[in-house]
Amino acid sequence: MTDAVVVTDIRKSYGDLNAVDGVSFTVAEGEFFGILGPNGAGKTTTLEIVEGLREPDSGTVELLGVNPWPRNPELLPRVGVQLQASSFFERLTAREQLETFGSLYGVGTAKAGEMLELVGLTDKADVQENKLSGGQRQRLSIACALVHDPDVVFLDEPTAALDPQARRNLWDVLRAIQARGKTIVYTTHYLDEAEILCDRVAIMDRGKVLALDSPAALVRGLDAPTRILLQPGALPLDTARELEGVDTAAEDEVSLTISTRKPARVLSTLAERGTLDGLQVRTATLEDVFLDHTGREYRA
């Protein structure tokens, strides 16, 4: 596959702060690529360099085969960008917003209706932007980034501050965008979302890429134990610890938790003892991979 984005050893510093410290990755055409990391990891700065909004101190970027910096007018129609903070024209309806954004790229007004349908806002076409809900404004922002039919779409935390229903709705929109053959590069703090949507993810911290692969491959590489949760009192704690295949067992007022790297054996034993009622099995997730690489301390 052809690479839509090629990033090679880019660096960006602000005084003593190395915001981006030797980042390299590629994104194939049609790929859904996620950049994950805690606050201050360098995600947004990396994205802005790739988009051509910032100049790197060193390193190179190729976006659709072209260096995005300095700004290349010929490249702009092929790229769509949705920033963390969305800005719209005042007093315009959803349709008028799209028609205005489209006119900047020479796109006819008919495209606005198509984009409204794509993001599920057809019934809000004549509603002013400031009267839309948060989720509707996010979808409108993405539609504005897509109205000129770009080849690569950059989304910076598109589902931030949305309620669960609005987030799920936006997932469908993002899947529909990729189904059109578009390349998507996005950042998010929602690891469950990245695990479902992304073909590959890069985990960043302190300006560096710490891991890069498909979510499934990263989870497999963690070699984390499976956790089996039973109702409190389902088994005496000492008995649980002595079961074949059990690594550790602990109990609190919520559950009896068994950790094991041989879940089939442990589950078979629990079935023989008739203790499967209310049982839950939890395998490692992308969140476990993320915390393993970046640590668990809180960062403002």
From TrEMBL:
In the bilayer, the protein is annotated as:
Peripheral membrane protein
The record ties this protein, via Gene3D superfamilies, to: P-loop containing nucleotide triphosphate hydrolases
Q: Where is the ABC transporter domain?
A: 5-231
Q: Which domain of life is it from?
A: Bacteria
UniProt GO molecular function: ATP binding; ATP hydrolysis activity
Protein name, UniProt field? ABC transporter ATP-binding protein
PANTHER family in the record:
ABC TRANSPORTER ATP-BINDING PROTEIN, ABC TRANSPORTER ATP-BINDING PROTEIN NATA
